[in-house]
């Protein structure tokens, strides 16, 4: 069963998310929840597959530092927030959040995002799709045609083995191309350590549209 820990300081939101996850098919277990990010670092939350994080806890402002520390520790973070502006969405992705869901998008998109994060499968909710479509970030890495071909094929295939077969190259070559793409993104300050993050970068840079995924 997929497990999640919820960091949110609104009891009504916590109760709602717990209910949505319990009723999901298959169910998602919310192992802990609380108003402080500490619940994500302490058992049982420390071992949860996914961290659902509200960006604004109490009167302390936006918790960018908490998000970055979780991402740096290798956690899969779904940001779930009242903030619905483009800058917040893109900053979350730049820091390394798995995805960004507004609280207005509700049950279906949050549950789908948690499930996708647990399986490391790309998921782009409607609000995030809109934010990506208007991104004007000038820091575009220069990718070769073959790097782009491998990247786009990987988005549409279930495994690197299928990418290799489709492009008639070795799996090791696929890995090399993807490593180079990640390196190029990192060099311009836009790290993309996961497949989901690479999908987000590709959408931001106009290499692919949400409808093509």
Automatic annotation (TrEMBL):
The organism's place on the tree of life at top rank: Bacteria
Residues bearing PTM 4-aspartylphosphate: 54
Entry-linked InterPro entries: CheY-like_superfamily, Sig_transdc_resp-reg_C-effctor, Sig_transdc_resp-reg_receiver, Tscrpt_reg_LuxR_C, WalR-like, WH-like_DNA-bd_sf
Keywords (A to Z) from UniProt: DNA-binding, Phosphoprotein, Transcription, Transcription regulation
Occurrences of domain Response regulatory (ranges): 3-118
Molecular-function GO terms, alphabetical: DNA binding
GO biological process: phosphorelay signal transduction system; regulation of DNA-templated transcription
Transcription regulation found in the keyword field: yes
PANTHER family according to UniProt: NITRATE_NITRITE RESPONSE REGULATOR PROTEIN NARP, TWO-COMPONENT RESPONSE REGULATOR
Protein name in UniProt: LuxR family two component transcriptional regulator
Organism: Herbihabitans rhizosphaerae
Lineage of origin: Bacteria, Bacillati, Actinomycetota, Actinomycetes, Pseudonocardiales
């Amino acid at each position: 069963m997929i497990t999640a820990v919820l960091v949110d300081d609104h009891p009504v939101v916590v109760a709602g998310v717990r209910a949505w996850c319990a009723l999901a098919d298959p169910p998602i277990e919310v192992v802990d929840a609380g108003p402080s990010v500490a619940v994500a670092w302490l058992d049982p939350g420390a071992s949860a597959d996914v961290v659902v994080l509200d960006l604004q806890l109490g009167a302390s402002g936006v918790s960018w530092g908490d998000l970055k520390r979780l991402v740096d520790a290798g956690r899969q973070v779904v940001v779930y927030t009242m903030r619905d502006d483009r800058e917040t969405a893109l900053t979350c992705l730049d820091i390394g959040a798995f995805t960004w869901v507004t609280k207005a998008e509700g049950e279906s998109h949050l549950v789908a995002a948690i499930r996708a994060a647990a399986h490391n499968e790309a998921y782009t909710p409607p609000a995030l799709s809109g934010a990506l479509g208007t991104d004007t970030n000038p820091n575009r890495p220069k990718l070769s045609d073959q790097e782009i071909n491998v990247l786009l094929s990987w988005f549409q295939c279930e495994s690197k083995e299928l990418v290799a077969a489709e492009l008639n190259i070795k799996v090791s070559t696929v890995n090399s191309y993807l490593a180079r793409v990640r390196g190029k993104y990192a060099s311009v300050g836009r790290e993309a350590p996961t497949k989901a993050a690479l999908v987000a970068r590709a959408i931001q840079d106009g290499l692919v549209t949400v409808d093509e995924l």
